[in-house]
């Protein structure tokens, strides 16, 4: 009996080790190698919780890591009702002398250091989990790729106001998927961004408002 219990325990530990293989946990003790770009919002880590706080007068700010190609990203997130946020994936940092990004609405170059590209939305207004083409096309990827059917009533209601919400984002090849609290909220293909940064956004705010915050915890990353 004892041998059977020992075998079962060893098997369980082996399966657990296999499940954890390849996963990195981000922001356990600090910001690590992540860099604040595009704005002046602040980011702190305390007790394993990453908190982004708005700064009046700042545009959208991002805590960026990467670049990365194929990956799975999971995290828990909570956002103030007055704020929306998001996580950039495969996004690019504009450099001095770069032309306007391909597909952008206008022909004006972005300022150096501006992060742009696909962003998985964090919001209480029914758009959570959809992807927005930040600082470039300025519209939703579900519209651009004609996958709006994924944005079902269940998907629009998946994000819970005032609570911690679980996100799972999978980007492999040209295929992008997101899940909010286990509900599929985006599923499309687009070939234009094969590699780029992951960026945790603190949105800019109107004058005379804030400060507001967005918090992430249990941030896990795995290259695919």
UniProtKB/TrEMBL annotation:
Residues 93-108 have a biased composition (Basic and acidic residues). The keyword Signal applies. Transmembrane segments: none annotated. GO terms for molecular function: hydrolase activity. This is 3-keto-alpha-glucoside-1,2-lyase/3-keto-2-hydroxy-glucal hydratase domain-containing protein. Pfam families: 3keto-disac_hyd. Keywords: Signal. Residues 1-19 form the signal peptide. The keyword Signal applies. Residues 91-111 are annotated as: Disordered. InterPro entries: AL/BT2_dom (IPR010496). Residues 22-222 form the 3-keto-alpha-glucoside-1,2-lyase/3-keto-2-hydroxy-glucal hydratase domain.
């Amino acid at each position: 009996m004892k041998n059977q219990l020992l075998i079962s325990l060893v098997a369980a530990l082996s399966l657990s080790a296999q499940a954890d293989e390849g996963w990195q946990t981000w922001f356990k003790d600090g910001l690590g190698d992540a860099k604040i770009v595009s704005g002046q919002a602040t980011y702190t880590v305390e007790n394993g919780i990453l908190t982004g706080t708005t700064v009046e007068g700042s545009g959208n700010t991002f805590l960026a890591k990467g670049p990365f190609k194929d990956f799975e990203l999971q995290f828990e997130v909570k956002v103030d009702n007055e704020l929306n946020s998001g996580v950039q994936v495969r996004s690019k940092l504009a450099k001095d002398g770069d032309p306007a990004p391909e597909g952008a609405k206008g022909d004006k170059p972005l300022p150096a250091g501006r992060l742009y590209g696909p962003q998985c939305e964090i919001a209480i207004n029914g758009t959570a989990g959809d992807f927005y083409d930040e600082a470039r096309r300025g519209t939703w990827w579900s519209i651009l790729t004609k996958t709006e059917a994924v944005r079902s009533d269940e998907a629009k209601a998946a994000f819970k106001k005032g609570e911690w919400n679980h996100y799972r984002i999978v980007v492999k090849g040209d295929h992008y998927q997101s899940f909010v609290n286990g509900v599929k909220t985006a599923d499309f293909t687009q070939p234009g961004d094969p590699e780029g940064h992951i960026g945790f956004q603190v949105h800019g705010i109107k004058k005379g408002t804030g400060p507001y915050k967005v918090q992430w915890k249990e941030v896990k990353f795995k290259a695919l």
